[in-house]
Write a structure and sequence with these properties.
7-stranded parallel beta sheet, Rossmann fold, 15% strand, 227 residues, 7 helices
């Protein structure tokens, strides 16, 4: 009987970004690919997380993030493909935040993003069309207790492109749920942001290895422009 040999956790001193670059450089990596119709799901591009000039909870990875989000959203919209925008907020007493709202309780805490507040509002740079789907969510995934899954089914979508923030939080949760719902899932690198490059690149690596195609945003632009 052959001996079973496992693998110890690797500790080799490489940074999360170095590991990400190595994974992405692998020519043998298999992709889920695009299907026939995609939807752009823009997760929480709201002022609490994007306005460096207003809130200390905000962060920026690629300064052109929202420009890229606008570009692929416009291209999808012009081709009759759905564009969705989520943002997070709670009622005044945070009674709908659940256990997620118990970790901290400061003016900057998640559960203190109230409906209609400046923190709840989408970043004004976002180019949102009146016919795009917009809704408020409570939990990390844009799928959780929302109309997203039924909306995508009605529009006969088979591919979900996830943008927004944070990469390690709501983008990751949405991408995992997207795969779990049976969608080809794509995460364009430049359209996502996080507070630290370690979180950002470690989660992009894990998404690429397991749950999504992590691709340059240009690959989404090229696919849409070819339709």
């Amino acid at each position: 009987m052959s001996e079973i040999v496992g693998t110890k956790m690797v500790e080799d001193g490489r940074t999360a970004r170095e590991i990400f670059d190595e994974v992405m450089a692998n020519p043998a990596r298999k992709k889920f690919g695009f299907g026939e119709k995609l939807a752009i799901v823009n997760v929480d591009p709201q002022q609490a997380y994007t306005r460096l000039d207003m809130f200390k909870t905000s962060y920026e990875t690629d300064p052109r993030q929202i420009e890229y989000i606008n570009t692929i959203s416009r291209l999808a919209r012009e081709r009759g493909m759905p564009v969705i925008w989520s943002h997070v907020a709670y009622k005044g007493d945070a009674g709908d935040a659940g256990v997620w709202g118990t970790r901290t309780d400061t003016p900057d805490s998640l559960q203190n993003i109230t409906y209609g507040s400046e923190r709840h509002k989408f970043d004004p740079r976002c180019e949102i069309d009146e016919n795009d789907l917009q809704y408020t969510k409570r939990m990390p995934s844009a799928f959780f207790e929302s109309q997203l899954a039924s909306y995508l089914t009605w529009h006969k979508v088979d591919t979900v492109v996830v943008t927004g923030g944070s990469t390690s939080g709501c983008v990751r949760a949405t991408a995992v749920d997207s795969l779990s719902h049976g969608y080809r899932t794509i995460v364009p690198i430049e359209t996502c942001a996080d507070k630290h490059e370690s979180y950002h690149f470690a989660n992009l690596t894990d998404l690429q290895l397991k749950y999504a195609d992590v691709e340059p945003v240009q690959s989404v632009i090229d696919w849409l422009e070819a339709r």
